[in-house]
């Protein structure tokens, strides 16, 4: 049973969320809090498996409530946000930087018919996924935290604690991978936005390489992610369009309703989703196109996320001679995608967010081939 605490100041939205989750097998709403202070107190008292968190509330807001929960009683937190304006979205992404692991759209009032069923399915799918084994919150400093075991996790056989992390092989000078790339490609899912802000925030505006990102995110939120990153970073952040050309010192973010592929002339191609790809944008398709277009002149990084997306494409990149890395288990909210990459020998090393920032700075200083 997944025990859920709802944090929301609107009585209408409280009732809507409770109604959407009522009588759903495996889910139980154990409490409702109307402000951030009450949320922290109830979370520490009830010890839920998961918290749905509003961001704008009287008194303590959702960002500070997330920080305090992560400090006092670490718990998986899903931000439920309105797609209203930049202020709402920026605050929602700040809550993710404080330790929340996912963001989804807030249900709009009392719904009926197909719309109700669609919202219910989407909400339950996200909550069930985030409460699954292997998902753990982390602090803004990317320190791993321990959270109580859910009943769903008790029914599984998790990997043994203290297992040896993936090795970090050295890259000797003169190696085919010890060269300056022409493009940086990064893929991520749950837990990755905070890593992007932390890592890319350490790069200067004069960074000489273009950066391309495929990020799994709830439909409609990618514009907010782009604006938030643009505010956080010295680098310029842009949403990719059909006319985009890769620019140095710029973070190019794939749209949430198209697959992004790179071309060797610095242009991009966008494709509609197909039934054969589970996620849009596909990280595999980004990496595979980078392998074709740039080969060893690309740097690939796979961040926190659930599933397998990105591992195959990262392996193709590595086979061309490109330098490839994955986020390490110690700092990843979800080690699913990085684990797949490590287990399929698709990476040269695993890295923390700070390691990745250092590596991005280092490869930009390599002499041009």
Provide a descriptive summary of the structure in words.
- This protein is α/β, with parallel strands linked by helices and 369 residues long.
- The protein has two domains: 2-154, Rossmann fold, CATH 3.40.50.2300; 183-365, Methylesterase CheB, C-terminal domain (Rossmann fold, 3-Layer(aba) Sandwich), CATH 3.40.50.180.
- Helices cover 35% and strands 18% of the residues.
- The chain has helices spanning 11-21, 36-46, 62-72, 86-98, 113-130, 151-154, 192-200, 222-232, 283-293, 311-319, 336-343, 353-365, and strands spanning 2-7, 27-33, 50-53, 76-81, 102-105, 183-188, 211-215, 236-239, 250-253, 259-262, 268-271, 298-302, 323-327, 349-351.
- The strands form three sheets. The chain has a seven-stranded parallel beta sheet.
- The termini are far apart.
- Residues 144-174 have low confidence and may be disordered.
Strand line-up across the major sheet: 8-9-7-6-12-13-14
End-to-end distance, in Å?
Answer: 56 Å
Please mark out the parts with pLDDT under 50 across 5 or more consecutive residues, or reply none. 144-174
Helix/strand-derived category reads: alpha/beta
The number of domains is 2
Q: How many extended strands? A: 14
Write the H/E string, N to C: EHEHEHEHEHHEHEHEEEEHEHEHEH
Mean pLDDT: 85
- Number of helical elements: 12
According to CATH, what is the class of the largest domain?
Alpha Beta
Output the radius of gyration: 20 Å
Strand content: 15-25%
CATH topological fold name of the largest domain:
Rossmann fold
CATH superfamily of the largest domain: Methylesterase CheB, C-terminal domain
Estimate percent helicity: 25-40%
Identify the CATH architecture of the largest domain. 3-Layer(aba) Sandwich
User: Largest sheet at a glance?
Assistant: 7 strands, parallel
């Amino acid at each position: 049973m997944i025990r859920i605490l709802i944090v929301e100041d609107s009585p209408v939205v409280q009732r809507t969320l409770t109604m959407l989750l009522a009588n759903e097998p495996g889910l139980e709403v154990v409490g409702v809090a109307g402000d951030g202070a009450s949320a922290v107190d109830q979370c520490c008292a009830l010890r839920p498996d998961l918290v749905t968190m509003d961001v704008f509330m009287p008194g303590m807001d959702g960002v500070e409530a997330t920080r305090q929960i992560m400090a006092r009683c670490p718990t998986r937190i899903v931000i439920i946000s309105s797609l209203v304006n930049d202020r709402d979205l920026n605050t929602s992404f700040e809550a993710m930087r404080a330790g929340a692991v996912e963001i989804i759209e807030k249900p709009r009032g009392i719904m009926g018919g197909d719309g109700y069923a669609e919202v219910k399915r989407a909400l339950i799918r996200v909550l069930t996924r985030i409460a699954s084994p292997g998902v753990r919150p982390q602090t803004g400093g990317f320190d791993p935290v321990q959270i109580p075991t859910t009943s769903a996790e008790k029914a599984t056989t998790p990997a043994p604690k203290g297992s040896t992390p993936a090795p970090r092989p050295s890259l000797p000078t003169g190696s085919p991978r010890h060269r300056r790339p022409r493009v940086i490609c990064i893929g991520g899912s749950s837990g990755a936005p905070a890593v992007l802000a932390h890592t890319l925030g350490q790069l200067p505006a004069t960074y000489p390489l273009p950066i391309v990102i495929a990020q799994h995110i709830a439909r409609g939120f990618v514009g907010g992610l782009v604006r938030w990153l643009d505010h956080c970073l010295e680098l310029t952040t842009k949403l990719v369009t059909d006319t985009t050309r890769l620019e140095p010192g710029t973070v190019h973010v794939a749209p949430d309703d198209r697959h992004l592929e790179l071309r060797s002339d610095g242009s991009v191609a966008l494709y509609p989703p197909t039934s054969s790809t589970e996620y849009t944008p596909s990280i595999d398709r980004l990496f595979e196109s980078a392998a074709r277009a740039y080969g060893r002149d690309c740097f690939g990084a796979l961040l926190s996320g659930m599933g397998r997306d990105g591992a195959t494409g990262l392996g193709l990149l590595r086979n061309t001679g490109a330098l490839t890395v994955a986020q390490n288990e110690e700092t990843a909210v979800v080690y699913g995608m990085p684990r797949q990459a490590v287990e399929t020998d698709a990476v040269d090393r695993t890295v923390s967010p700070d390691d990745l920032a250092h590596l991005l700075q280092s490869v930009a200083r390599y002499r041009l081939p």
